[in-house]
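Notes on consecutive records. When two proteins share a document, each keeps its own sequence and its own token line. Never mix them. Below: protein one.
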Amino acid sequence: MWIESSDGIQVAVHEFGGTGRTLLWSHATGFHAHCYEPIARRLGDNFTSFGLDHRGHGTTALTNNWQVDWSKYGDDAHAAAEAIAPDGGLVAFGHSMGGASLVMAAHAKPGLFEALVVFEPIIFPAPDVGPKGEPTPMIAAARNRRATFDSYEAAIERYSSKPPMQFFDADILRAYVEHGFAPTGDAGSNQVGLRCTPEHEARTFETGGTHGFWDVLPEVETRVVVVSGKVEEERSPAGIAASVAERLPNGSYIELTTGNHLTPFITPDVIADLLRDTLC
């Protein structure tokens, strides 16, 4: 389905099926909703799942000349949540950028969500705004990311041989490629290109510390379970996660000591079990 968000953008919301209470999936930067569908299938007896493609990701396009503004990712999550649960009481899982956008949406409309589980949400205190000096390796890697492959299968073969995606669950890697690329339209060619452009991904990473939402975390009334992988660096999404939980009036924190920022894609069974334990 297509839902109108801010700036006239129509965001894509995909139904993944299942039975039980409604669960919304909100993805990380550079990814898209279908990356979480294999986890949603594991939870089919517990939840009816819907996945959101944020603007510039998956099948949700950008308007001309739109500049990255993280508050608008919050608008996308808000619009999707209201569309699938107009009476509120929704539960949701957000990963990285997707976690931050869900918390923004919960702040915008108390009662919209009953509970959130957010994995390493990108919410940092004010001193950590913006890149300092040279671009981080993540930003540089995004900007230099290969944008086209000769076919879907060529992309899967390439990613499955290189870190970090070589460690992804096979179904999740295939979903990333099959829904994250589209035919380029070249006549007589099977060539496919990224839907989320390298520049859009890089700009999203670059501006992730600038949205200032840290300051309003104490105003978020919703129950929020903040999850991280193993904490190895203080100034990282994992390192700040416990502090995010502490600032939330109804926050709690879980550290997965064998995980990292990409755990949802590497060990989907772990995330499925965690969601059953925290939301059922």
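Protein two starts on the next line and is unrelated to protein one.
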Amino acid sequence: MLNLISDAWIPVRRKDGSRAVIAPWQMADDSLAFPDWPRPDLNIACLELLIGLVFLADPPRDAEDWQDRQSPDPDRLRERFAPFAPAFELMGDGPRFMQDREAFAEDDPNSPDMLFIDSAGGQTIRNNADVMVKRGRYGALEPATAAMALYTLQAHAPSGGKGNRTSMRGGGPMVTLVDPGGGFWPLIWANVPDGAPATVETLPWMRRTRTSERGEQVFPQDAHPVEAFFGMPRRLRLVGGEGRVTGVVQRPYGTDYAGWEHPLTPHYRQKPGAELLPLHPRAGQFGYRNWLGVVLPAPNANDTARRARMAMLWHDRSGGRRADLIVAGWAMDNMKPRDFTFSRAPLLDLPDETAERVEGFVEAASALAVALRGALAPVLAEGEAREAAREEFFARTQGPFEARIAQLTAVNADAQAVARDWLADLRAAALAIFDAQALPGLAERNIRDQQAIVQARSGLTAAFAGYGKLGQGAWAALGLTAPEQKRRKSA
């Protein structure tokens, strides 16, 4: 039906805006810009798959080899990929791509809909509770779409009922991709880890599944590093008919991965010395308050946030060349998808002292956002309205934050002056939001409400001046000396 190595099956967009369908070895075509699947999660997973293929068949040995091989070479990729073609058949009697070796009974398959993270599960459908998830969208799939959806589910799988394992990185991991610009191949090559070529036998579907019904786990030392890109937490078999995929059969207790650090995902510790865990996106805009440990390095003394390995490696490989970081992934609430994040941010390497100052900038903004939220109590009800105002505060200060970081990293930067400028940026944004909510119709309010609004604004400006718990905390985070706090007179 489809061989994922030799056949053309990946939709792409060219730099000139035209579209094409390519085989994997053609990724090293200088005219290509980006994958062109109809869903952003498939685009991101497609990039992960292609990166994994290069890591499998032809990775760079070291930074020098990586630098020497930056130019696209489709013929070399075609030659290196060819021996792996037998492992990349989507259907058939032999090994199947990302599918269990055992032939499952196919008398009652699930709909292909189950391959998509935002599709409704059986219990959700029975309870008629599919509000944020959807049912019945994909009664049958073209082989290419089925292959990409299958890979996406295995790579990002959320919890799926008893025995149905999450992905190696948990449900809905954050994916970060270094993008140096220049199109498709530079994006792929920037994210391929160093290593040695693997063999067909290292792929998990080329052997019996390491099942987990008795609590067995697979650690990094138990498998080849390439399994980070080809993990199989779900035991799945596709069912086909008339050239299409018409169903999926699933068994529980696929491989339970433990202790892996995926090279494209940031990790964190809940406290210094604790287990390293994969980071997951939050719903909403990915802005500067989420950058530390993802886009920007966390101070070494912190030891609780670590950027993805490929983000950390970029600086050494490239000699400090500029690049962006693509940040993407499903924000999940246990089994329920909430939002798909897709964002770009500048990838920066900072010395520890500067990273600590940036951490302080974010901490100050977070404290003063709380002050704004509290000040809006006389005019906005608790809940979504005030939370929306807080989100607007972070959105308004995104541009100023990036400008202040540029100033902070300049030669002979005056860190104290930049901190005061950042404080002024935060104050201007907060007061603009407060005034837009509180001032219209102020004269028509009763005197008690007017007094409460005036007092709230006074308290907000006091926080920015360094008074009160939140104001003091913000000034301390910025490395500024807060004014002496006025003591209340005793009665």
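For the record: The longest helix spans residues 352-375.
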